[in-house]
Amino acid sequence: MGSCISNGRINMNWAEFFNMGGYAFEVWTSWGLTLLVLLWFVIIPKHRNARIKHEIKRQIARETRLENTAP
Amino acid sequence: MNPFTSIWTFLSTTYHRLGSPREFYRISRYVTPVFGFLFLTLSALGAYFGLFVAPADYQQGDAFRILFVHVPVAWMSLFVYVVMAVAGAIGLIWRMKMAFVVTICSAPIGAAFTALALLTGSIWGKPIWGTYWVWDARLTSELILLFLYFGIMAVYYAFEERKTAEKAAALLSVVGVVIVPIIHYSVEWWSSLHQGVTVFAEGGPKMPPSMLLPLAFMAVGFMFFYGYALFLTMRNRVLINERKSKWVRALAMGESI
Amino acid sequence: MVLINSVFCKTKVNLTLMPSTQAISAKNLSCTRGDKLLFENLNFSIVSGECLHVTGENGSGKTSLLRIIAGINRSETGELVWNNENALVNLSFFAACAYIAHKDGLKNELTAIENLRYYQQLESNNSNSDQNEEALDEALDRLKILQCADLSAQQLSFGQRRRLAFARLLVSNFSLWILDEPFTGIDKNGRALIEELCVEHLEKGGVIILTHHQSLIDSPINAYRKELKLSELDGS
Amino acid sequence: MVLINSVFCKTKVNLTLMPSTQAISAKNLSCTRGDKLLFENLNFSIVSGECLHVTGENGSGKTSLLRIIAGINRSETGELVWNNENALVNLSFFAACAYIAHKDGLKNELTAIENLRYYQQLESNNSNSDQNEEALDEALDRLKILQCADLSAQQLSFGQRRRLAFARLLVSNFSLWILDEPFTGIDKNGRALIEELCVEHLEKGGVIILTHHQSLIDSPINAYRKELKLSELDGS
Amino acid sequence: MNTLTLYFRREWQLMFRNTSSLIQPLTFFIIIALLFPFSLPAENALLQRIGGGVIWVSAVLATLLSLESMFHSDYHDGTLEQMLIHPRSLPLAMLGKALAHWTATGLVLSLFSPVLCLTFNIPSDQIWVLFAGLLLGTPSLTLIGAIGAALTVTLRRGGVLIAIIILPLYIPILIFGAGMLTQATQGLDVTSQLYALAAILTLALTLSPFAIAGALRVTIN
Amino acid sequence: MNTLTLYFRREWQLMFRNTSSLIQPLTFFIIIALLFPFSLPAENALLQRIGGGVIWVSAVLATLLSLESMFHSDYHDGTLEQMLIHPRSLPLAMLGKALAHWTATGLVLSLFSPVLCLTFNIPSDQIWVLFAGLLLGTPSLTLIGAIGAALTVTLRRGGVLIAIIILPLYIPILIFGAGMLTQATQGLDVTSQLYALAAILTLALTLSPFAIAGALRVTIN
Ligand code: HEM
Ligand SMILES: Nc1ncnc2c1ncn2[C@@H]1O[C@H](COP(=O)(O)OP(=O)(O)OP(=O)(O)O)[C@@H](O)[C@H]1O
Ligand SMILES: Nc1ncnc2c1ncn2[C@@H]1O[C@H](COP(=O)(O)OP(=O)(O)OP(=O)(O)O)[C@@H](O)[C@H]1O
Ligand SMILES: [Mg+2]
Ligand SMILES: [Mg+2]
Fold first, then answer.
1. What is the ipTM of this complex?
2. What is the rounded average pLDDT of the residues F124-146?
């Protein structure tokens, strides 16, 4: 797909697209930052969920061991 | 059964189900991915129309494409706060456990949205106003909102006992809700560099449909993102809060609930 | 597990002095502190002229129970009934209830009598100031701290402070006294005095809920005593 | 007027454990608080294995005396002699002296064990951290609050806090214990425990100065007890 | 005695007892305001321009500093527990306390502000504007700040947390109060700002006693 | 363990325990500094001129606010009494405590000050001057302030009294620190001011531990 064909932006190629009419820095940092933050709020909780479950598991293991060793 | 009664029964059962951490955990397992999916589709569509389809602005050129992230994110920063305050009030009045969890878990997400609104706004400000930052009413009140989010988190973490911490944070979020109308009306009350009301203006949006459509997609998509991220965080908090209970222990051992 | 040993002996309610009989009962109270369940399904019931002696080891939840009764904390379950009404929605309950704990509610900056006067003014509807002042002096005198009346609370010795905190009960008309270890730091004479005051209160038809670590068998209060023993619960 | 009733019975100093005999004596101490002369010309003298029981009514000046001995306040006259030296110029005295009062010196934010560890580090020269940690656990266990080791001090019950304050004596090597009403808020078992610890300390050749309002006749400490009675002075 | 007056009077009694506590907020106000001349380039025109803002910021900080101890001793000596038990209306009691507190901080420093204005060479017609603004604004500062004080009373280092919680809520008052002065400098009308301050005050007077009482119920346990 | 390190570590432990107490002075610093843009006419040139002074005043006030609680809880729970009894050198202990306190306040806010400078549009060569000044000046602020904290620890409302006692002593530091910035704006040399700040710091480091210890001995009885 060399160009995006649509009502407003005819005959635009990728280089032009990334250049954003000279506002590449502004547009892409804004979009990029937003994307990063959104990703953060998906990845971190998922990671944490696994860790929490793991910790609870360890806690249970510790408790059962204590129960078994105690008279 | 008349429709009113059945709606009421449905609402009250949902309320009671979501009010219980265990039921929440069970139900959210199915709801969360739906939110995620809706978010992905809507925002992908929004991004496509916003970046590829919408024509450049005759004044700002392509810089206006920041709008499609700035505006939804700025709206969300206010919306999340309102949700927090409402949930906090529900928790305080009806002593509903899960409402506090909503308040606490929304705070970092809301803070992130606020920080993004500030960042994207100041990045956009450089080409438009010639400076990253001015001490203007809209901008400063948004900054205050960020501090308010921080304050709520600080209060939550300052208390040792969870019940106290939850209630204190909820109370503060209820008290702080006055900031929302201030931010919203700041552009009308004070002369401001910032754009006035454009979308929900009297007499319809002052924006061409080619801009309005992607904006709407992005805005609704971000709403679903909030639901998605909120549920993910809430599931963790519920696990931590209820870690002593039987069902969480069973869950950790790999059983399903 | 919660036991009630009724070591209760006699009740001499002097109905002429306090016409309506007071009664407080608790149904199914429970309390969790942090992760620890202190007690659950706790019930008791006392009426005018009875003294509930809450016993238990250090950390068994006595203070927590007293604070729930006084309405400072809330029980997660159950309810507290005062004269056949739910105590928490009943303002007359709080008006009838006095709570004396380790923190004594005295201002260091104010003199003994000023501290007492404040508590008197909080409660009393009597606007005759001469009578009121008389009552203050009398209360201090009963507790043998009249000589300290014009010392600031900061300058009182530990025992004198405790006595002053107790004097508050005498200037207002509470029917339920909630006393957390009332004999702490009080000397022998003082203890006899306080016991005497408690007995007087019970005789007039009042109710007392107290904690105390030593036995009360030799005390005059014993005749009115009902014991509520909080025992250590097993984990979970 | 100050009386010393020597109800002192036996001394069993175990010289192998604490080689040098400790002795503390006071000559001609006096204390004025505000306008009030609390005591004057107060003398006492105790040696290893003796426990000075300071008695007196509320407000008679017991706490003031203990604070003077601990060096927190100063006596207007006289001097305090520790092992034949003036205590106030003698750093070894302060290193030997522990003071447990109503204010317990515990930080609400720190857990029980952290509070204790701080006091241990203050005193000890032992850098073996395993041994030190062991000692902490042991001290908590002796006072039956090991289960609270990781609770913050704020979350402890009143009695548990008092026990924790007392545990401090076990992790360091003080020879003079100054205890202001050590049994406040402590339950029966706890009291027996603390008495046992005091006896142990005395047996090892330590010295204790304490105040307590009840009689100590039935207590194991009685065997080592010397009484110092502060009586009300007439106005002057 | 009426709950409001009783608590009001008691607070006053306590403040008078602590000898200098009455002049302390004022002194603090003055000292903060006078720190600026030391730390800025010494130019009369500059000082005059920023004078009003500096006085407002000083008032906010002086109030904030004095708020911290508002419930502190009540908490530590158990008076707060006694208030919670007591059937007298807690919100009314809190209102009485807050108003007493205001008379010793906000009122005093509003009354003193004209003198401070003179040191900054602020013209006399603007002095009145500043004075009116402070008089209307400082009670709201105290009432809103008391919520923060109640929330943080059980915490060590509550002082800084209180600032984080409360300062954002102070900003609107500051904007209206100090904005009034900027308006006045340009010869514009300031009634709309005065109305805004009055509206905030009404809101604070009616709602914050309940918020304070709620906060205390939450934190004391 | 060494007295200095022991007390330093304990203080740190306490600060970390109170979760947010580490970020609080910083937040306070930022918030105070940001109060000014709200209360002054919105002009970039004006803000730029007063930015350095505002940052210094904010640093002074943030330090002051955090100082208040420095000995408060130690006093109320009896830890101070225990320190007084103890044969370890009290001045050294106090030095440890003060230094720990500084790392959580002065150090952190000096490190953050460049960011704040950016919002005030302060040119980057002056940012370095401000930074160096704060780094040299804030330890003196803490050390001197601790004397006031020790003197007022037994008082209710000590917070405001401490300000009255200490702020006059802060003036020289403020004059040198903020004066440095005014010099720098005019392109002048700032070494003499830096030397002055260093001299004050040396003095504070050597003398104030003794003054703090003395103050505590006087007030606790
Ligand atoms: C740091 C700088 C900025 C901040 C903090 C900021 C903040 C906000 C906020 C909070 C809103 C939502 C208002 C509401 O819903 O009531 C908003 C909306 C908006 N912003 Fe910004 N903004 C900034 C810069 C900019 C810039 C530079 C522009 C472009 C000229 C811009 C254009 C808009 C537009 C068009 C809206 C939608 C207005 C409406 O219809 O309500 N913003 N901004
Ligand atoms: N800071 C002070 N200023 C003035 N007088 C004081 C001060 N502290 C105590 N007093 C007075 O000194 C007397 C003795 O106080 P002290 O605390 O030594 O008594 P005590 O024997 O320990 O009494 P208690 O058994 O009640 O603890 C009291 O009458 C008290 O009023
Ligand atoms: N704020 C709190 N947070 C968490 N746990 C607490 C809190 N307060 C008390 N506890 C715990 O609750 C238990 C009971 O405390 P409570 O003060 O009711 O005991 P108590 O029976 O009065 O003991 P004591 O005889 O020592 O006064 C204790 O084990 C204590 O650790
Ligand atoms: Mg108790
Ligand atoms: Mg005493």
1. 0.77
2. 92
